[in-house]
Every structure is written in C-alpha cells, then in structure tokens.
Amino acid sequence: MGNKLKVGIIGATGMVGQRFACLLENHPWFEVTVLAASKNSSGMTYEEAVKDRWKMTTSLPEKYKDMVVKDAFEVEDICNKVDFVFCAISLNKKQTKLLEEEYAKHETPVVSNNSANRNVEDVPVLIPEINGAHAQIIESQKKRLGTKRGFIAVKPNCSIQSYVPPVNALMEYEPQTILACTYQAISGAGKTFNECPEILDNVIPFIDGEEEKSENEPLKIWGKVENNKIINAQNPIITTQCIRVPVTNGHLAAVFVNFKKKPSKEEIIKAWESFKAPEIVLNLPSAPKQFLKYFTEDNRPQTNLDRDYENGMGITMGRLREDKIFDYKFVCLSHNTLRGAAGGGVLSAEYLKACGYLTAK
Questions:
Q1: Which of 4, 164, 166, 336 is exposed most, by the fewest CB atoms within 10 A?
Q2: Direct distance between the N- and C-terminal alpha carbons of the chain, in angstroms, rounded to an integer
Q3: Whether residues 54 and 136 fall in one domain
Q4: What range(s) does the Semialdehyde dehydrogenase NAD-binding domain occupy (predicted)?
C-alpha cells in the first residue's frame, strides 16, 4: 500500500458506489480498505452483494470480489480501518446527515456525494477548479463538530455540473439571470434501462428535488467565506427545468444568460478556451487537462459522442448564439456519474489531500 491513504466507500453497492470502486481500483493516492452498505448487504462478499446489480460496463474488479461488505452503521469499527471515507449511501436526508456527522465526529473525514449536508453553512460544496478556496471553512466546521481532523466536504448536484463551469468562466461580465433546462440521464437516478422501463420511448418532465438544487447550489459555489460560514451569492438569479430522458449517462443543458456587461460572442469563446484551473488542481491525478471545450459544429456536443471528454471530467459546450429574449444561449454537457458524482468526489478528495486536509491517521 506504500504511502496511500486508506479509504472506505460507504454505499458501495449502489451505482455511484460502484463507480467509486472502479475509479479507485488503481488510484495512485488512495487504497480502498473498506466497502460498506446497508444491513441487507453486510456480511456478504462484494461479489455476492452486487452479483445481480453490477451496473458498470466494465467487469467487477478482482481486488474487491472477496472483500466482505460491512454495515455502514458500524462507524467506530470502520473508522479504525480507514483514513477517510467516500459516502454515496442511499438513505433519507436526515439519516444521511446524521451518519456523515457521526463519521466526522469519529475523526474520519467524509467526502460526500449526497445532498444532506450541502446546505450546512460551514460545509464546502466543491468544484476544485472553481471554488477550492472554500475548503478553508473546514477549520470552522471542525470547531463546531469538536473534532481535530474529522469534517464533511461535498460535491454539488450532478445537474449543475454542465452549466456552472462555463458560466463561471464568464463572471467578469456579471451574469444576472440564467434559465437552464437540463436533460438528464437515467443513471442520475441510479438506474439502467433494465431497471427503468418507463423511460423507453418517453421523456419524464419531473425529477424530485432537482430544480431546487439546480437553482440554489450554484449560489453557494459562487459565495464567499465570511464569519465562519459560506454566504451565498445574490446573483445570478437562476431558474431551471429538469427533465429525465432515455440516455444512459450524460446530462445536457440548454442555457440562456443575461449579462450586466454583455460580452461579444468572440469574448465568450475566448474566455472558455483560455480558462485555466489553479496549478494545484491541474496537478491532481483525476483533473482534466482542459476543463472546458467549445465545439464549432452546429450539432455538438452530443451526449453519446462527448460525455467521455477528458475521461468524463471535462465540460463541453456548443451552439453559442445571441437570443431574442436573453443575451446569449448555448448548449453544454457533463458526464453525470463521473464529473457529476464519483469522479467529482475523487477529484475533491485529491484536492483536499493536496491542501493537507486529508492525512493518514
């Protein structure tokens, strides 16, 4: 194992947990030492637990097959075996919030894929290329929790990953209002086509809780750390519609934006193409070399063709043009279970390790 940090995956049997397991199979910094899930799976080998519900297109990694799945609520025992955990467990928000706090209070940092703690004022919601500086709030959080090394950090909702990065690259022009209609893959609900027959030949115009997250979470990402909490930004005003479409992976968004200082089309494209993440992020193992890519073709980005750009960690845009009501409109795309879920979590953990927040016990 060398100098790798020991990590647990809480919720390892679900789709995002499986994605975490695959991404961490040969990770240079992290070694999975614990797989945990609900009581229904505890005591089984991982192969037995996911036998009929392995959802990845790649095979179950050999190294995990014989690992015995632990009960996620055996917090003390798990914490004795890991330096930190990824959490992707499927519980109600109250249960999830309490469970993540319990791990943190047992001096085990939590990098969460869940929404339960995203609205907590001293919990950073990280897209490392954009708001890595929010990690500084962790010190305030540890004081509240009464911990020395335990804390919670989360990645934002998958629905915002496609449009927040390209809008962020344009902040100097002061975006005022945003309309975003997202067309979201079924994997966002943790399902495959076999598990979601109602989506075949169909579009479902409702995803529970998604629009509230899509409208509010960007404001926290663009907020400021003041007085031991993150103060949400007041602008831009965001309104969304979130729609489930018959696609395996990839969330596509149609975005409309008004600016206080309207840029030219050329200035927008230049801002996208020249956007560069902080050097500390660019050197992380999972970081995309080029975060944002603009397509000049009229029919790109396409979900099937472009969701895996930069190993699924980059954002693609296209169809930028002026609008009759808004200043501009464009289309953008992100991979929802990579950048939008497990991949974003792994990148956040890498960033937190590089900044000294994740260490060996």
A1: 4
A2: 15
A3: yes
A4: 6-138
Among 247, 242, 157, residue whose Cα is nearest residue 196? 247
Q: Are residues 327 and 179 in the same domain?
A: yes
DSSP 178-208: EEEEEEE-GGGGT--GGG-GGGTT--B---T
pLDDT per position as a tens digit, 49-94: 999 999 999 999 999 999 999 999 999 999 999 999 999 998 999 9
Q: Do residues 325 and 177 both lie within one domain?
A: yes
Catalytic residues: 158, 251
The tally of domains found in the chain comes to 2
Which residue range forms the structural domain that includes residue 55? 5-157+342-354
* Secondary structure letter of residue 68 according to DSSP: B
Q: pTM of this prediction? A: 0.97
Q: How many angstroms from the chain centroid is the CA of residue 291?
A: 15
- Cα–Cα distance for residue pair 9/31, rounded to 1 Å: 11
Q: Do 47 and 181 belong to one domain?
A: no
Could you give the maximum distance between any two Cα atoms of the chain, in Å? 60
CA–CA gap between residue 166 and residue 331 (Å, rounded) = 10
**Domain with 281 in it: what CATH number?**
3.30.360.10
Listing DSSP states for 316-354 in one string gives EEEEEEE-SSSSEEEEEEE-TTIIIIIHHHHHHHHHHHH
